[in-house]
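Here we describe the complex-level prediction in full. Unlike the single-chain runs in Section 2.1, the two entities below were treated as one system.
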Amino acid sequence: MVLTDTFHLALSAFRSNKMRSLLTLLGIIIGVMTIIAMQSLITGLRKSINEQVSSLGSSVFQVQKFPAINMGPHDHDKYRNRKDITYADALAVRERVTAAKAVGAEVWNWGAELRYKDRKTLPNIQLAGVTPEFLENNGLEIAEGRFITAEDVDLNVAVTVIGADVVDKLFPFEDPLGKDIKLMGRRFEVVGIFEKKGSAFGQSQDNRIAIPFFQFTRLYGKERSINITVQAATPALVETATEQTIGVMRTQRKVKPGIENDFEIYSNETITGFFDNITKYVRIVAIAIASISLLVAGVGIMNIMLVSVTERTREIGIRKSVGAKRSDILWQFLIEAIVLSELGGLIGIMLGLGIGKLVDALTPIPAAVPVWTVFLGLIFCSFVGLVFGVYPALKAARMDPITALRYE
Amino acid sequence: MLIKLEKIEKIYEIGTVQVPALRGINLNVEKNEYIAIMGPSGSGKSTLMNIIGCLDTPSSGDYLLNQHNVSTMDDDQLAEIRNREIGFVFQTFNLLPRASALHNVELPMIYNGTPAAGRRKMAEEALEKVGLADRMHHKPNELSGGQRQRVAIARALVNRPSIILADEPTGNLDSRTGDEIMEIFEGLHEQGNTIILVTHEEYIAEHSNRIIRLRDGMVERDESVH
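The structure predicted for the assembly as a whole is:
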C-alpha cells in the first residue's frame, strides 16, 4: 500500500472525528506550545542580551579587576583588596602573549563633565583613556575624522574622539571636528566622532569620549585600575591567548601556584554564559512539564486509537477481505496515530509562535524561534504517535478477517 | 481445474469441546462454472465459503486454488490470494461507509500497488459495467440497496479474480432488486467468470448450473441444473 494512500486515509479519519481528535490532541498541543513559547522567549531574550552586551570586538577579551557580574555583596571586599591592574601589566601582556594581535590599555572615569564655549554636559560622560587598540577591541567605529593614534599616545597630544550624544549636546549647530572642548579645565581638540551605537539596557552608549591614555593619568592620577583588552590573532586562538594572558598576569602579579587569579577575564560570552546558566533551569523545568504533558497526551492518543480500531473493526475486515495484509493495516493505524500527533504538534507550534509574537508585541521581551525547536517538536510528536500508536495498530493488524467482517 | 478441495475438514474448538463444521469435503470446480452452495443453517456452508474465499484455512485436507496450495498459507499469503484470485460479494454489502463508490471499488487495487491513475480508470470501468456510471461519487448511504450491491460487485470484479464468491447476495434486497442483481451475475457468468453463490433460496440457486447441497458438514448432493 502506497504511503500517500495511507496518509490520505489518516487525514480523512481525522476529518470524520474532528471534535474527538481535537480533544485528544489538547495534551500534545499544550506540551508543544509550552516548549515553543518558552524557547522562543528565552532565545529572543538571549539574542537581545547578546546584542546589547557585545561591548567588545570579535575575538576580544578583557582583563579587569572586578568581575562583570557580582553575585551578592559578600565578595566585594575580596575584589576591592586586589591589586590594581597597571599599564605595566598591559605592556607585559602586549609583549608576551604571542597569540594576540592587538593589546590595548584603557582606563575609565564614569562621571566626566565637558564644556564647549558656554555649553556643558551633565557630569555623566564616560571618559576613557585609551591606546589606539581601543577602537577595534571595543567593536567601535569612527563616523567622521580619525581615531587616537600611537603617536597621539606617545607624544601625549591633547586630542579627543567623542560620541554622538556629546556632539548633540555641545555642537548642535557646528561641525565639532577641529574644535577644542574642555575637560577638567584642559583643552582637547576633537579629531573624530564615534559611529552611533544606540543604547544597551536603557543606557546610552554614545555619551562617551576617548583621550590618549597618559592624558587621562595626568588628569586623574595613576591610582586607578586599568582594563587590558586583548584581541586574539584569529578566532581559533582566543583560548590560547586567554591562557597566555592569564599566565602573564599571574607572573606579573606574583600569584602563587594553586591560588586563584586575582583578576577577571571578561568577554562577550561572560554575560550570555551567565544568562544561559540562569535559564538552564527554566529550560529544564519547561521541558519536564512539556514531556509529562506529551506523555499524558500519548496515553490519550493510544486510548482514542483503541476506540477507533474497535469502531472500525468492520472496516478492517473489509480491507482484509479484499487483500490488505497485516502490515497494511498496521501502517494505516500507525500513520493515523502519527499524523494525529503531528497535527497536534503543528497546532501547538502555531500557538507557541503566536504566544511568542504576542509577548514580543506587548512587552519589551523579544521572541525568536530557533528552527531546530520546531523540527525537534515535530519529531518528538511523531515519536509519541509512533510509541503510543503501536499497540492499537498491532491490535488492528492481528484481527481475524472473518470475525472482523461479522462485527456489528 | 480451478478449485480442488480434498478431504477438507474444519474443527472448531469451543473450550475443550471439538465441534466439527466440515467433515471431509471433496469438491472440484472448473473455470466458468456457476455454482450454488445450499444447505440449512449449521450445515457448514459459511465455513466452506470462508475456506474457499481464503479467509480461513482448513484443519486438515488440501485446497488447491488455481494451482496454489492454499491450505498451508500464512495470513499474508492468504491476503495476497484474496486480492488476486477472489472477489467477494456479501449479503450486507460491506462497503466502506465514508468512502465514495469509486473509492470502494478502488480498494482492492490499493493493496496490490496499482498506480492511482490506473486504479481510478479501472474502477470507473467496473462501475460502468454494473450500470453505476452516474453514481461513482456517491457514498453508500446515498445509494439504494441494489446500487450498493452493484458497487460491491464492481469491487469484486475489478481485480479480474478467478472466482466471484457471493454470500447470500440478495438476502438484504427486495425480490425485484434481487432479480436485477442475479441478472448481473448471469451476465458475468456469460463473460467467462466463475461464480460461487451461497444461498438458501431455491429460486436463487436455480440461476446456477450446479447446486451443491451440504448437510452436517458433508456434501449431501451435487447436481447439475439445466
